[in-house]
Every structure is written in structure tokens, then in C-alpha cells.
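Q: Hand in one record:
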Amino acid sequence: YKIKFPSGVDDSDFTIERHPEVITFNVVERATKLVEVRGSFTGGAAEGYVVESDDMSFSPAFIKVSGTSEELAQIAYAQVAINGQDLSASIQEDRPYIFVNADGEEVESTHVTADVDVVNVTVPVSMLKELDVAVDIINGGGAHSWDCDIDIRPKRVTLSGTVEELAAMNRLNVGAIDLAEHAEDFEITFPIELDEGIQCVTGETEVKVTVRFKDLVTQDFEVTDLRYINCADSSQASIVNKTLPVTVRATQMTMDKISAEDIRVIADLTNYGTMTGYVTVPVKIYIDGVTGAGAVGEYSVTVNLTSK
């Protein structure tokens, strides 16, 4: 530095001292690295909601920092602190951050610079809803839902998701059961399949349904009345089977009124067009003269199709 005295001043009468007389400094290479952003949440959700603190997201997820290698080595991650009470909606806001070491202690970063000053934080808050578990019952085979004892385990589950996702749900339907497919009491397991973003917070992954038929009996009949309908005009058909064993279910009172002659087997050839050769055709079973009875299971016959 230089001292400039006013004109006419004799500078020989001055004693000049400098403190310090020498400046010492170090020159080090400037380093850069990416630092992960992590969050810490304090607070809680309103009744009927849950804070998904493990699913917090950050933008950016990593911060680019520059400084001395020694200082950067101390930085383990950047921490964002978020707090809230009685939350019923997700949080999304810009928040400051601090650098911390591996022990979670704040790091003094005198010579460290970063590419952003704040981080945009999203803290999801989900709705909780307890729902009854249900299955659709398809009546058939002489049985209705009221003819059965149906036990569902678990009976209720608790789900979490957005208000929009859960507001329209009034039960959790896990599947359908066709009673015509089962001749005796049975148990079936359904997986719990949920839309993306919905979780079962009570932890269940499957539902077991046990069905027991009440006051119903089954009986086998050897049916000889085998017919076909809707054969193409250019074709002719003949059913190879002479008889077809059919299992019928009904109350004992109704079953006592049924004979093999009351049962018709109908094969619909609509979808076979001008095909030729032997084909296996599903059939429908009709029981004439009674109500409340039905065939159990699926049946088919072999039909020989030829050209006229």
C-alpha cells in the first residue's frame, strides 16, 4: 500500500508501522462432489391420516458442492428439517438445509459453496380408511348366496392412500366366486391387489374365503337327452355322446322331484360355422319342471360336423 500525504506536508516527521507486515496463505486445489439430500420430520398427522415420512422426496435429490477436499470429506449428506402438526394434506415447500457428518452433526463449511440454496421437499400425507372385505357371489348350480355360510378372513382391512383414491371406496372387493363351479364346501384364497399408491397398512396380503352349503344335496344323473342348436345351413351335425353324466344340486325336497328325463343338454353350434370334423362343444344344462335346482360344474359333448 502507499500513503499519499496532502500537498505541503513533510512526511519525514511520521513513523509508519504495519501490522501484520507479512500475510501467509495456502493455495489448495478446489474439489467438487455430489451430496445426497435427506430429511427429518417431526410432528404428526390428523386423525384418520398418516405421514409417509419414509417416502419424502427432494428436488434436487443431490446437491453439487465445491470446496477444499478436507472440508468436503467431512460432509456425509445435506439434511432438511420439516415439521408439522395435525396434517391432513401433503407438504410441498422450499426448505433450507445444513451439511452434516456421518454422526449427524452439523459441519462448519466456511469455504464450501453449493449450486442451490434451498431444496423443494415433498412429504406425502395419506388418508387411512378401514374397509370391509367382500367377494362377489355368482349364483348357480342350484345354490344362492343365502344357501351358504360364507366366512371371509380378514373381515376388515385398513388402507392408506390419497383422499381422491380412497373416497370412492366403500369396501375392498377381492374377487368373485361362481357357486356353479363347486359341488361341495370349499375354501379359496384371493390375493389382495391394490392400485398403485394404495397400501394395506395392517399388513394383509391375501384373503381366505370359506363357503359351506346349507340344506343342499347333490345327485348324479345319466342324461340321454342331448341336443344341438344353430347348426349352419351347409352343415350337418351329430352328437357322438350317447349319455352325459350330470351332477345336480338342490334341496332334498326339490331333488326328489327330479329324474334324468327332466334334464336337457343343449350344445350351441353358432361359433362353429362351416367347420368339419369332430369338435368339443360346451353345453348348457336345463332342468325342466322344477325351480331352485341347477347343474354343478362345466360340461361339454363331442360333435361330428360334416358338409351336406
